[in-house]
Amino acid sequence: MNEIKCPKCHEVFKVDQAGYADILKQVRDHQFEEELRNRLDLAEKDKQSAVLLAQSEIKNKLQLDIADKEKEILALKAQGEKHLAEQLAAKDQALLTLKAKIENADNEKQLLIAQAVQSATKERDDLANQIKLMQAEKLLLEKSLHEKFATELKAKDDIIRMKDDEIALRKDMKMKLSTKMIGETLEQHCETEFNKIRATAFPKAYFEKDNDARTGSKGDFIYREVDAYGNEIISIMFEMKNEGDETVTKKRNEDFFKELDKDRKDKNCEYAILVTLLEADNELYNSGIVDVSHRYEKMYVIRPQFFIPMITILRNAALQSLQAKAELAQIRNQNIDITNFEENINAFKSAFAKNYDLASRQFKTAIDEIDKTMDHLQKVKDNLLSSVNNLRLANNKAEDLTIKKLTKGNPTMTAKFEELRNNPPIDSGE
User: Which tens digits make up the pLDDT trace of 211-232?
Assistant: First the structure.
């Protein structure tokens, strides 16, 4: 506990630590505020004095600065007007230059834009044309494939139909005919099929039975065709083979290859074709046209339904190669002509060389004779020139000869000439 004595009533109070601290704080706050207020008053007075002094100093300094600045302003104003005009002119010029650059940049930009647009337009048009072309090609390809598939499908259907017809025909033939008659009927069938279209498809073709057995064997039919100039287009030796189911000995197609090849060569035919109904269950021969040229040159085995198509195929191929053959023959003829021309040239060169050698010798002889003649003529010329010189001397002497010289030292002749001068002869008129 602390004791506090009142300064007015002198009464002593006891207060606890907290109350004592509070009273002490109040006393200190009051003293602090009073002292602070006094100091603030002094600081305010000092501040006002300093402010007044600073204001006075600043005012004086500002007046001096204003005076200096006014002088500088006047000087700068004079210079500034000139520089301003120059700067304005420079700025105007720069502005004009910048404007021209901007305009050029705009023009270049417009040109680049136009070029880019043109290039893009061209690329677009090219792409559009390519797309159109691709679409057209696609349509053509689709159409071609469709037509191709349709043609192949139709050909397959025709082959199937022809096979079915042939099977039905063979079954009917087997039931009705003997082995010999079957074979003969196949030949008649092929001949009939050919004659149906002979006038339209093969108007200039020869298709007849092979009746020439002088070589020991013969085929069934020979087909030949030549062009308008007599050049052979194609030739075919045909053999037709068939047998009935009741035949005891079954034959194979290859049993007839060797003899057919011999008949082809004996009759000078280009192709050999076996038209056969043998080996009816053989898938190889039932599949269509069979090429057996690996065993015998230019030989084929077909079923009867391929008889006309096979002739057409070989004939068309031969017609296509006919032009090549004609060109080859022409080239061969040209080679022969060139060879003959070279031989004629060589013969001419040889004869010309002989004639040239003979003419050269004769020419040299003539030159020698001319040289001899020229030597003789030179001698005659020299003699003539000598004679001319003598004649000139004689003429000069004759020109120099006068009556005076003739009568010199001859009184008699002098007297005679003097007399003739004085008494010239009288002309009698005769």
Answer: 887 877 888 899 999 888 888 8
Characterize 326-358 residue by residue with b for buried, 16 or more Cβ atoms within 10 angstroms of its Cβ, and e for exposed. eeeeeeeeeeeeeeeeeeeeeeeeeeeeeeeee
| Residue 405 pLDDT grade (very low, low, confident, very high; cuts 50, 70, 90) | low
Give me the DSSP letters along 69-110: HHHHHHHHHHHHHHHHHHHHHHHHHHHHHHHHHHHHHHHHHH
Strand order in the sheet with 232-241: 205-209, 221-226, 232-241, 271-276, 299-302, 290-291
Q: Which residues lie below 8 Å from residue 306, measured CB to CB, with a gap of 6+?
A: 288, 289
Residues 6+ apart with CB under 8 A from 236: 222, 223, 224, 269, 270, 271, 272, 273, 311, 314
Report the Cα–Cα distance between both ends of the chain, in Å, rounded: 225
Q: How far apart are CA 353 and CA 359, in angstroms?
A: 10
- Residue 257 in contact with residue 246, Cβ under 8 Å? no
What does the pLDDT look like over 113-140, one tens digit per residue?
A: 777 778 777 877 887 787 788 778 778 8
Tokens of 307: 């008889």
**For residue 11, what are the contacts with CB-CB under 8 A and spacing of at least 6?**
5
| Amino acid in position 27 | V
Rounded Cα–Cα distance for residues 239 and 423 (Å): 146
- DSSP letter, residue 256: G
Cα separation of 236 and 270, whole Å?
A: 6
* Percent composition of the chain: helix, strand, coil (DSSP 3-state, to 5): 75, 10, 15
Return d(Cα 303, Cα 289) in angstroms, integer. Answer: 8
**Strand spans (E) along 204-270:** 205-209, 221-226, 232-241
Tokens of 335: 């080679």
Phi, psi of 71 (to 5 degrees): -65, -45
Separation CA 170–CA 181 (nearest Å): 12
Check residue 16 and report its DSSP letter. Answer: -
Distance CA 190, CA 240 (A): 9
Alpha-carbon distance 5 to 13, whole Å? 6
pTM over 0.85: no
